[in-house]
Amino acid sequence: MSSIQQKSPTDFKANDDTNNLINQIKQAADNKTPIRIEGNGTKRQLGHSINSNHAVVSTRAHSGIINYDPVELVMTARAGTTLAEIDAVLAENQQTLACDPARFNGQATIGGSLATNQAGPSRPWLGSLRDHVLGVNLINGKGEYLRFGGKVMKNVAGYDVSRLQAGAMGTLGLMTEISVKVLPFASASMTVRQALSQAEAISNMNLLAGQPTPLSAASWVNGYLYLQFSGAQSAVENAVNSLVSGTVNKKFTTASRKYNNSEILSLEQASDFWTQLRDQQLDFFNNLAADESLWRFSINPTAWDDFSNNVDDKAWLADWGGALRWLKGDFNQEKLSDWAQRHGGEVTLFAQSQKQSQRDSQNEHDFTGAGQITLPPINPVIQRIQTNIKNSFDPNRILNIGRLYHWS
Amino acid sequence: MTKITPVELSEKLTSFINPDYVISDAETQKVYECDGLAAYCEMPMLVVLPETVEQVQRALQLFNQYEIPVVARGSGTSLSAGATPHKEGVVLSLAKFTNILHIDPKARTARLQPGVRNLAISEAAAEHGLYYAPDPSSQIACSIGGNVAENAGGVHCLKYGLTVHNVLKINMLTVEGELISIGSEGLDNYGMDLLALINGSEGMLGVITEITVKLLPIPQKAQVILAGFDSVQTAGDAVGRVISQGIIPGGLEMMDSYAIKAAEAFANAGYPLDAQALLLCELDGTEDEVQANTQQVAELFTKLGATSVRISQNETERALFWKGRKSAFPAVGRLSPDYYCMDGTIPRGQLAYVLTEINRLSKEYDLRVANVFHAGDGNLHPLILFDANTPGEFEKTEEFGGRILELCVEVGGCITGEHGVGLEKIRQMATQFNDKEIAQFHLIKSAFDPKTTLNPGKGIPMLKRCQEYRSLGKYKDKRKDCAHQSTGENHA
Ligand SMILES: Cc1cc2nc3c(=O)[nH]c(=O)nc-3n(C[C@H](O)[C@H](O)[C@H](O)COP(=O)(O)OP(=O)(O)OC[C@H]3O[C@@H](n4cnc5c(N)ncnc54)[C@H](O)[C@@H]3O)c2cc1C
Ligand SMILES: Cc1cc2nc3c(=O)[nH]c(=O)nc-3n(C[C@H](O)[C@H](O)[C@H](O)COP(=O)(O)OP(=O)(O)OC[C@H]3O[C@@H](n4cnc5c(N)ncnc54)[C@H](O)[C@@H]3O)c2cc1C
Fold first, then answer.
1. Is residue A208 within 8 angstroms of chain B, CB to CB?
2. Are residues B85 and B105 in the same domain?
3. Same-domain check for residues B66 and B114
4. B113 & B40 share domain
5. Is the pLDDT assigned to residue A255 strictly greater than 90?
6. Are B277 and B238 in contact (CB under 8 A)?
7. What integer pLDDT is reported at residue B288 of this predicted model?
């Protein structure tokens, strides 16, 4: 591994738009005119769409890495910096983000990614941006410029406002700077693919996750279980060997090889697969029939019962070692919601078919606008607390109104 | 609002809580007067130890009705006076809630009552080959509820994360006694991440009544390298070099010569007494991986000038190597009538500068300091030795401690990495945050606790106090990277 090159801040492309952003929000607050915060606008099905009359405040002109110290494993970037740009700079030092959020053709910004808390297939093992954010600077709905957290790994002074931004979708403030933890590249990575039913895959993924292996992603797609192992080369090879029953010669290679029902993917095949899964480019996500909706379950990873058994495997995709399930088809929302709750989690309607849309419009669901989604039911006490929090950051109610919930 | 006397309150409580567990006599209350930071004492109005969630709920409803301050208490090991009683308030102890409700080996989770001791989780999970990763040095005593409230860390947090990274779900009673559930058995949920707010909230946002944590598979193997160095600087550089090799150790701890001597006298762990700094580097994973990494790190330490390098040869020796570190606080405590533990975090690269400054301050205040350091993640624990019986010495110690925390902020760090603010660091909050940020914290608190009766006076300082603190003159805005701070002020 090459030695680490410390860069000075002047090495980075500087594009500081903070004052302009503060001014725009301050003005909106003074005039009580709602605004929409936008990174690169790659968001789609997520959340509610916002009234398009609301003016856009864009972080696009606010980009560039501000500070990157490879030895401290910390990087600070302006919110409008794309993950692609960050990846490129980190890669020069054989480092990477400590988790693997969706890149969306390199367009996703670090601000938008944290605001939506995107996480790729390695979520159970590497965590999400929420786990690795160390600090944020943000402009709240009063136009106040505030700093929370910091650039150090541990910090428990005050409430954790940085992590609170993860998933808040910009309803609490416009983040201008974000510090995150980074990590060295794993020295080796191998992916094994096994032909299995979903039921077998769910069971195997959970068993494997309970054993000390360098497992770093486990997903079931279209009749195959994909297992990724990353870490020290010997550990990765051993894990793969024991999976394909010791038939692999010990040497780690980049070519693909087949054994009984297992196949070791070539590095390129593996990388393509995981990228496409992470960025939702697989056919599963894109070939929705006219009457098919797409649901996303965040649930107990072991969830399996008659319901899952009775729906054709083709309608399912299981990610995050079983903790994330995608389901497409024509289903009754209440039934899915019950199923999610029975398995300790929740379901969101991610992409809605026309049929579903007509049905929902007769129901009391929480949705608005064009990018309609149906949300998990919310406890009234939690709704009250979230409303209070929203009002504490944005008393004039100008930031991304209706984005998270119709009442937020 | 009508006032209620302690006797009346006690009567109301005993109507639904075992009278033995409603404590109003001073003698029995005495054990609750402080937490692990004994310099802060206060006698409460009442101590109550409910046995069921319903009892906690009814008690909270009662306290809310009369606006009585409530201090939740786990095991009372907080080092920031977070669990110190309020003199007009009630200590709500969760000590009766010690049941492990369920371990799900397949999903790798444990559902726990808040009073379960940290170590008890791993002990119970062991039969399934699993363990709970965050391991504060106080793990034989501290409770999981207290861990969540403080977002506790431990020596293995560098690799496996803090409490916040290992908690999936909590049940919590609001100040009004409403039971809510935050998080889920899945990994991420739609909406604001309230779970992140509750971790580290120091009993100020609600009373945690149940916690679901993640369990991890016990690594096949773990090995510790014990390396002595002739300077803190060299040891500090070695830490950076290990990590930049792409190796993330399970734990990476450092002690200075004073702490080495104290720990060795206490634990007989075989620490090199002539070293100026000691690194303990634990590597864990599969057999082959550990073997390869241990070799690599040991060679690196030698190359970087380590004066001694030892590798644990078996589990007993590994435990022994850790014993010195894990008992460092009480060990240092034996050298002096009292010690005061600080908890700042700094960028690792600033270590040599910060330790030099601490030594300078140590001379200035004429107080000895031993340093124990979660070196991998930059969390520094200077232990200031003092004698509380010498008039004025605690005040002097506190002032010295405050200067250390300001120093941490000055180099880009923070005033507390894992012990929390509590009563102790409330003044230094004004060093790390400006008034607008502190005002935002108060607003977050009101979102949960509009009458501010949950652990009042802790964690977040009154704005008036911040101004007083800053006007003492010792304070100047030393925060690094304050480029836009003035802008923020102008616009606000
Ligand atoms: C094919 C496809 C599939 C997708 N699937 C998913 C999915 O499964 N799950 C998911 O969560 N997302 C999904 N998205 C959305 C996307 O992941 C994220 O929105 C995107 O990564 C964020 O980057 P962005 O810069 O484009 O942000 P934008 O799309 O511009 O913004 C995303 C959200 O974050 C807010 N925001 C942006 N910048 C800031 C800031 N600086 N401060 C505060 N708030 C800010 C915006 O107001 C908006 O609410 C998908 C997008 C595409 C194109
Ligand atoms: C020798 C020693 C070593 C230590 N080492 C470490 C270490 O390595 N890492 C570390 O992080 N800490 C360490 N600590 C500090 C302390 O052990 C931790 O902060 C621990 O998490 C406190 O747990 P507790 O159960 O003792 O909580 P308590 O001290 O009882 O309470 C701490 C705070 O949590 C709140 N609280 C407690 N229970 C609840 C609940 N159920 N609901 C809501 N609020 C609650 C209290 O109100 C208080 O604010 C150490 C302490 C000692 C004495």
1. no
2. no
3. no
4. no
5. no
6. no
7. 84
Among chain A residues, CA nearest to B460: A158
Q: Which ligand is nearest to the CA of B424?
A: 2
Q: Which residue has the higher pLDDT, A398 or A408?
A: A398
The domain in which residue B26 lies consists of: 6-93
| A185 contacts on B by Cβ (under 8 Å) | 246
Centre of ligand 2 to C-alpha B438, Å, is 23
Residues B107, B207, single domain; the answer is yes
What is the per-residue pLDDT for B483?
A: 35
- Among the candidates B358, B384, B410, a domain finishes at B410
Distance CA A202, CA B65 (A): 49
Q: Is the pLDDT confidence value at A408 over 50? A: yes
- Centre of ligand 1 to C-alpha A45, Å, is 9
Give the pLDDT confidence of B200-244 residue by residue, as tens digits: 999 999 999 999 999 999 999 999 999 999 998 899 889 988 987
Q: What was the pLDDT predicted at A372?
A: 47
Amino acid identity, residue B46?
L
Per-residue tokens: B144:
């999981």
Write down the pLDDT at residue B98.
98
- Kindly state whether residue B480 falls inside one of the protein's structural domains: no
Using the 3D structure, point to which of B391, B410, B429 is the last residue of a domain: B410
Residues B238 and B324 in one domain: yes
Q: Classify residue B33: in a domain, yes or no.
A: yes
Amino acid occupying residue B219 = P
B348 and chain A in contact, CB less than 8 A: yes
DSSP symbols for A311-357: S-GGGEEEEGGGTEEEEEE---HHHHHHHHHHTTSEEEEEE--HHHH
CATH number of the domain where residue B364 is located: 3.30.70
Does residue B402 share a domain with residue B357?
Answer: yes
User: B206 lies in a domain?
Assistant: yes
DSSP string spanning B189-248?
A: -SS--HHHHHTT-TTSS-EEEEEEEE-EEPPSEEEEEEEEES-HHHHHHHHHHHHHTT--
The answer, for B288 touching chain A at a CB cutoff of 8 Å, is yes
Domain count, chain B: 4
Which two tokens mark B78?
């907080």
Report ipTM for this prediction. 0.92
Rounded Cα–Cα distance for residues B136 and B156 (Å): 9
Gap from B16 CA to chain A (nearest CA, Å): 25
Q: Which ligand is nearest to the CA of B423?
A: 2
Same domain, B73 and B178: no
Q: Is B248 on the interface with A (CB under 8 A)?
A: yes
CA distance A381 to chain B (A): 7
Instruction: Write down the pLDDT at residue A374.
Output: 65
**Averaged over A373-392, what is the pLDDT?**
88
**Mean pLDDT over residues B133-140, rounded?**
94
Instruction: Specify whether the CB–CB gap between B293 and B283 falls below 8 A.
Output: yes
Whether A341 contacts chain B with CB within 8 A: no
B434: in domain? no
Domains delineated in chain A: 3-184 (3.30.465.10), 188-278 (3.30.70), 290-375 (no CATH)
User: How many A×B Cβ pairs under 8 Å?
Assistant: 305
Overall pTM surpassing 0.80 (yes/no): yes
The nearest alpha carbon in chain A to B203 belongs to A159
Q: What percent of chain B has pLDDT over 90?
A: 83
Identify the bridge partners of residue B173 per DSSP, sorted by sequence position.
Answer: B179, B207
Ligand 2 centroid to residue B31 C-alpha, Å: 16
Mean pLDDT across the stretch B96-119?
Answer: 98
**Burial state string for A360-378 with b = 16 or more CB within 10 A and e = fewer than 16:** beeeebebbeebbbbbbeb
Q: Does an H or E element contain B9, and which?
A: helix B6-14
Q: Do B136 and B183 belong to one domain?
A: yes
Each residue's pLDDT tens digit, A18-48: 999 999 999 999 999 999 998 887 655 555 6
Q: Which CATH number fits the domain that encloses residue B209? A: 3.30.465.10
Query: How confident is the model over B305-309, as a mean pLDDT?
Result: 96
A111 Cα–ligand 1 center, Å = 8
